Predict the 3D structure of the following.
Amino acid sequence: MTVIAPEQAASTARGSGGRDAASTGPGPARMARLRRKIGDNLQAYAFLAAGLLCFGLFSWWPLVKGIVLSFQQDNFVTDPIWVGFDNYRAVLDDPLFGTAWLNTLEFTGLALLFGFAVPFVMALVINEFRHAKGFFRFAVYLPVMLPPIVSVLLWQYFYDPGTGLFNAVLSGVGLPTSDWTQSPKMAMISLVLVSTWANMGGATIMYLAGLAGIPGELYEAAELDGASIWQRVRHVTIPQMRFIMLVLLLLQIVATMQVFIEPYQLTGTTNEETITVMVLIYRYAFTVNNDFGLAAAMSVLLFIVLGAFSAVYLRLTRKAD
Amino acid sequence: MSAMTRSLVSEADLRRGSGRLIYRLVLGAMAVAFTLAFLFPLYWMVTGALKSPLELAQTPPTLWPHEWHPETYLDAWRRLEIGKFLVNTAFYALGGWLIQLIIDVAAAYALSKLRPVLGNVVLGGMLASLMLPAAALLVPAYLTVAEVPIFGVNLLNTPWALWLPGAANAFNIYVLKRFFDQIPNDLLDSAGIDGAGRFRLLWHIVLPLSRPVLAVVSIFAIIGSWKDFLWPLLVLQDPEVQTISVALSRLASTGRVTNNEMFAGLAIASVPMVIIFMVFQRSILNGLSAGALKG
């Protein structure tokens, strides 16, 4: 895998602090060097201060607070009460818990089917075109640029069972219409469709970048050996793309398991057909229960599941450096 | 792509028998499919706003507006106050971009070139935050913003609720640091001997050399803040200060808005990002590819 030149700085001087006194002289010189070093470090941390403050306050502290909160009952008026695993028990006992996780898995599964496999095939085909490549890259990525709420609201009008474009087209060509987001059978698929439409550009562009990096000699050699086009895909393209496919798979799992805006906007936070883990967290904290402890417990569970995927992802990409 | 480098299908394949015909057919079919799938919905949005609400809802739908109502865009701008929300969003995006850039560049510079004691621990701590799915931090981060520890201030409904958490961007710091790492230390050392301070080295040597990476980071910072929904939904509940995304979602649920006005609102909300995409297409698509390979 290419891009970004190798790290070359590491071996050269650690900062410029050490280069002044080549002499390892006694007393005063050493003191001066120490003072210099402390000064350098203070300067470095002055540059780091704002970043550290932001990370401390809005990333590291919320992590700790979230874990603490998941063991507490807190109404933010009186002192919080330590309740042990009660929040977790309550969350696990909630019949919506299973529903939300199953829905989320269903969404992720469908989203991978449409959003992982289809872009691969599209990229494979586009990569072979000698014309209009720019058009394809532009068109497929355009929806990714829209604010997600625009895509979702636009599709909400398309999905409308009475006046929507989709049903008009379906009945126009003599096909049965659908209730889309309002039907229990179709609701989840409707959410996945708009989500895929809005996001598939990213995967397609990344696949295209990967395909462009495959050395042409490999195909040439395969062709000389008499490999058909399909055999070349099977034995050259896919093995060469394995790493990027794995990375994208992990990225998409982490992203789609946090789906929120589609169910929030299209089917609402009370619809049991499409309630997802994120929607349930939102419900616990901000609508039905107003209980941040429950929401925190649910968040910790989500973090444990997604953290594993993220860890593998980071591992892989670091190793690729 | 000029002068094709060799890929899956060879020129020989294309010339052989029906190869050329199949190529033409697939190319045409894909072009039509992409136009219908990705461009047509946007065409529908822009022209939908020009139709009367009645025409917009009619079956069969009209492909081209029979009656023209360009004033819908003005109505939406005024009645739905789209203009105000657009300005809000632009203000959040630009301010967030500036703060993010200042804080992240300073941090990356310190970690790459000043190499303080425990620098690697700090970087590790920052990178670890990449493992935290944003969703898992939602509730505690919200509570933190509602009452910031140590300072005890409430940032809800202020721009800072978006700007400060956004500045804690480990991905940016990592990308910037890796770029700074490539800048030879000798260059900085010789300038340092001439008496330039740390800040001047950053300003006069590191930053001018880093223009490409700064551009990519900037574009993605602005796109990211423009697209964000859930976080602004939580921390900007006062309608006066909402972003356009949050406002559109709220307006769509009130039901007091006609469909064509809503379409106009959606179209207006899309314009800035579409323009940015058209102008910076190359850096966006290439930056994305690079990011994919180097997480």
User: Anything to note?
Assistant: Residues 27-69 of chain A form the longest helix (43 residues).
